[in-house]
Q: What sequence folds into this?
């Protein structure tokens, strides 16, 4: 339903744009090594959230016909790619890394234009794709399996990784190059072929990545790009019987739809979903450092990170001091177009996001006891008139069970919650349905380790914000954030390969495991 509304809102906006803009570049899908339009010829527009009159490009509005063609191409290329030695596959990926470095500035500017985040953060997003490419390509000369003793004489036992096969990758808009790279690069080094569908708000960054794959020499059909909306192109990928694995990052609500469809057809499904992350600030913390972390975590990428610090649980002894400083610093943040050097906080992604975030700001103001201490406004005048701008917003005196402290807002809004002890802080921190990232600011090592042990999240930081993951460590979350998989690190190999146990009996006779002693 939410998706349908989003599509409607976008469509009406896009129709308006179409009447006002003439020469806009038309982009194509990439299927079987060719850049081609959607079978229907239909397109959708990619719009700059900082200035909705800036139409970045038209992209194929793909349907199941395009997904079928892409899957056929991936099928045709699979044997060739899986039989290419992994070190050779990796050589191509190292070339890809070089291309990404060479084009970093252009990709960064494209990303800010289509997604809105400030240039430094867009540069970080591209850098993450570069880091992921180099780190994961190194697996081409590892992809370790193992040997182990067999229980019978003259028998050899070992375990190797084999590619899963054809993979469908579905990605969100908030990390438009990093997240596609987290899925594509491991899939490729492991010998899989793939079809990727980026979010409809940010197809250009994935287009750039796929174009770089082509330039690096990845053979036709190994990587296929299909753009379009979730309900049709996304659903067609999720339901396609030949796609053995669906790797999805997005909201928990969509993830549930994807998981059900995969369960129906017994496909492997890896899910990275929403978060309601928390910073705990103890009375012995370096308050200025905690403020820096809170500002960066809550308002970086306009709060649209799955790891955003949307709750800050603060010990009563420093609560006033912390809240006052946070409010003062928040008010000083400069909202604007992410392409401008002076901007601290860019726009949010689209009109639907504005409605959702402003809805939560309303809810927060109506929740008994919570105080709107900074921000709270939808900015619509002057330089903000053509974009989706919301003031960085702080609610104080928030109770842990309020909706603004429980639900993912995915915007520049954070909730400050008072606490009387570490035990209570950890209980509050764990008391949400998500389990992605958490952090503690304290100068007491015992408390840091206590929290580290007791927080049930996939990621934990000490004296740092809830954001800042590095590509060589596993990334993912517990509870409603994930379904037990981890991306990045070497752990991602367990998503994109399946184990094959191999027994070699060189005794020349029948040996019966568990029976012959
Ligand atoms: P979304 O769920 O709306 O969309 C994600 C992707 O799924 C898009 O490509 C979309 O087109 C597609 N999709 C939508 N409906 C579909 C359907 N019925 N079938 C198949 N595909 C469908 O999420 P979003 O708004 O793009 O991203 C924001 C969400 O992503 C937030 O909840 C955020 O926390 C989460 N996220 C999580 C991580 C993580 O690693 N845990 C990282 C980034 C973002």
A:
């Amino acid at each position: 339903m939410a998706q349908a509304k989003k599509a409607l809102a976008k469509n009406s906006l896009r129709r308006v744009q179409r009447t006002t803009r003439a020469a806009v570049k038309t982009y194509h899908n990439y299927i079987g090594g060719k850049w081609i339009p959607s079978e229907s010829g239909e397109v959708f527009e990619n719009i700059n959230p900082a200035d909705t009159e800036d139409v970045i490009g038209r992209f194929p509005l793909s349907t199941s016909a395009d997904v079928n063609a892409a899957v056929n191409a991936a099928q045709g290329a699979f044997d060739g790619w899986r039989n290419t030695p992994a070190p050779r596959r990796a050589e191509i990926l190292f070339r890809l890394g070089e291309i990404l470095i060479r084009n970093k500035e252009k990709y960064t500017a494209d990303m800010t234009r289509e997604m809105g985040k400030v240039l430094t953060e867009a540069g970080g997003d591209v850098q993450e794709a570069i880091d992921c490419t180099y780190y994961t390509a190194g697996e081409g000369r590892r992809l370790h399996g193992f040997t182990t003793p067999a229980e019978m004489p003259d028998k050899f036992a070992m375990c190797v990784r084999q590619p899963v096969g054809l993979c469908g990758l579905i990605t969100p808009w908030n990390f438009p190059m990093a997240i596609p790279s987290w899925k594509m690069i491991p899939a490729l080094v492991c010998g899989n072929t793939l079809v990727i569908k980026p979010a409809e708000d940010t197809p250009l960054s994935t287009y750039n990545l796929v174009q770089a794959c082509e330039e690096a020499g990845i053979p036709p059909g190994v990587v296929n790009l299909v753009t379009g909306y979730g309900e049709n192109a996304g659903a067609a990928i999720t339901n396609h019987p030949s796609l053995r694995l669906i790797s999805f990052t997005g909201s928990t609500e969509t993830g549930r739809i994807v998981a059900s469809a995969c369960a129906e057809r017994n496909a492997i499904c890896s899910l990275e979903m929403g978060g309601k992350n928390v910073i705990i600030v103890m009375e012995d913390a370096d308050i200025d450092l905690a403020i820096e972390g809170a500002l960066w975590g809550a308002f970086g990428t306009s709060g649209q990170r799955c790891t955003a610090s949307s709750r800050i649980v603060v010990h009563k002894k420093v609560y006033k001091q912390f809240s006052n400083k946070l409010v003062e610093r928040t008010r000083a943040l400069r909202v604007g177009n992410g392409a401008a050097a002076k901007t601290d906080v860019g726009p949010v992604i689209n009109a639907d996001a504005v409605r959702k975030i402003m809805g939560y700001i309303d809810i927060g103001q109506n929740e008994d006891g919570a105080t709107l201490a900074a921000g709270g406004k939808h900015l619509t005048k002057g330089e903000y008139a053509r974009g989706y701008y919301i003031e960085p917003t702080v609610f104080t005196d928030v109770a842990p069970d309020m909706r603004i402290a429980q639900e993912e807002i995915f915007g520049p809004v954070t909730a400050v919650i008072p606490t009387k002890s570490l035990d209570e802080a950890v209980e509050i921190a764990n008391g949400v349905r998500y389990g992605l990232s958490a952090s503690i600011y304290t100068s007491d090592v015992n408390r840091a380790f206590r929290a580290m042990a007791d927080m049930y999240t996939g990621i934990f930081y000490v004296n740092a914000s809830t954001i800042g993951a590095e590509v060589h460590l596993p990334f993912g979350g517990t509870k409603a954030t994930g379904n037990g998989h981890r991306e990045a690190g070497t752990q991602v190999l367990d998503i994109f390969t399946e184990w094959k146990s191999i027994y070699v009996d060189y005794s020349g006779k029948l040996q019966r495991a568990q029976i012959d002693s």
About this structure: Confidence is low (pLDDT under 50) at residues 1-20.
